[in-house]
Amino acid sequence: MKYAAQTEVPADRSRSEIEKTLVRYGATKFMYGWEDDAAVIGFVANGRHIRFLLPLPDKTSREFTHTPERGTLRSPGQAMVAWEQACKQKWRALALYVKATLEAVESGIVTFEEAFEAHTILPNGQTVGQYIQPQIREAYLTGSMPKMLPMLGGGRRS
Q1: pLDDT at position 109, please?
Q2: How far apart are CA 141 and CA 137, in angstroms?
Q3: 107 φ, ψ to 5°?
Q4: Could you give the CA distance from residue 11 to residue 88 in angstroms, rounded to a whole number?
Q5: What is the pLDDT of residue 145?
């Protein structure tokens, strides 16, 4: 069962909650945008630029166009309601994640940098996660560290 699967909280209210939470924990900038298959939030806090990409469900997916019980075709209006519910759920989950992560930082469980490292934006526009994940995959596949990260130990040194 997904968190907040039956929520009645509209997506825009969850977005607003995220923004207010960020301000409460010291963010100095906030932005939001969307396109067909994703939404994005970004903010600046602790001197870092952070970006979260929120994948949105595909409106044409069978889970929205057909009923789960019998697989019968839904009307366009019913399909839209089901899709909007899935979007509400995703926004509630993101609001929970942001709030819990910021509270973990505030409580001293992790540092801000540790908590948001994968979502920190690098000068080339990628997040740290986008930049490092292919390198991590390669390290696990080959059993050795990428040459560009020899200082992390366990890899070949040039």
Answers
A1: 98
A2: 6
A3: -80, -5
A4: 5
A5: 79
CB contact at 8 A, 26 and 97: no
Edge-to-edge strand ranges of the sheet holding 48-55: 29-35, 38-45, 48-55
Model pLDDT, residue 152: 55
Checking if the pLDDT of 26 tops 80, the result is yes
At residue 66, φ and ψ (nearest 5 deg) are -130, 155
Q: Taking the CB of residue 124, how many other CB atoms lie within 10 A of it? A: 7
CA distance 30 to 26: 11
3-state secondary structure of 118: helix
Nearest alpha carbon to residue 135 among 123, 148, 125: 148
pLDDT, tens digit (0-9, with 9 covering 90-100), for 36-55? 899 999 999 999 999 999 99
Residue type, 93: A
Tokens in use for 34?
């969307």
Locate all alpha helices (DSSP H) within the chain, ordered by sequence.
Answer: 11-24, 62-65, 76-106, 112-116, 128-142
Cα(62)–Cα(51) distance, integer angstroms? 30
Query: What is the rounded distance in angstroms from the CA atom of residue 127 to the CA atom of residue 49?
Result: 9
